[in-house]
Design goal:
Helix content is about 0%, strand content about 50%. It is mostly beta strands.
Amino acid sequence: LLIIPSGYKAGVAYAELPANGNGDLTWSRNSVANRTQSDGSIGSVAANVPRLSYMYGSCPALLLEPQRTNSIRNSTMQGAVAGSPGTLPTNWTGGSAGGITRTIVGIGTENGLPYIDFRFNGTSTATSLDIGFESLTQIAALNGLIWTESAWIKYTCNLNPPNTISFLMFELTSAGAFVAAGSTLINVTSSLARNSFTRTLNGGATVAFVQPLLRFSLTNGASYDFTIRIAAPQMELGAYATTWINTTNAAATRLPDSFTRNNIY
């Protein structure tokens, strides 16, 4: 459904025709939410305000999204400290591999999205390096459910980049033991872009948790030097990625958009 209203305010999206208001939409969403603004940056709107999103270009679309929860408790890099190795954002895991030096270059904002920059350099004695956006036993899950992981990612320097970069989901038991995993390769360039990975959990009856990760594939004995920017990660129960939901220290939920039509038959 693509609707371009002539104007909007909290609780209503106005129709151009008919002029008597019969085509107006009474709008409801009882939480703040994000949208792509006309300059391409991400910004928030207040509860019950319709979201005109420029995610498709210069022509805005009126977002109508279901309820979703970002289960990553810290998508805004709280607790991160620059340095070598520096301090990971609170609740994040990994970020190390044999022979590779990790440096947290900095934390900032690009296009309205909070990010963290990692530099990895050295001669690897490992075949992979993982960054986990959550701990092993935090995001409750069940076999057969569909999850989507997403984040905005780019290289700020790729003198000697990793072999590949992938999104990864670990399926885990109630004790945090590994059960199964799935992954997908993502294309990272010098432009900040959103990537996503959707997976149906298939580890069986013992699956109790799921963990979203970013994996860098390496070669034992090879040298690497690259800096990667990761912004606004999200892990949501659903078959596709929806607009980013800010989190700082706990999972957060965006309530659904809904509307009623005034006197349209």
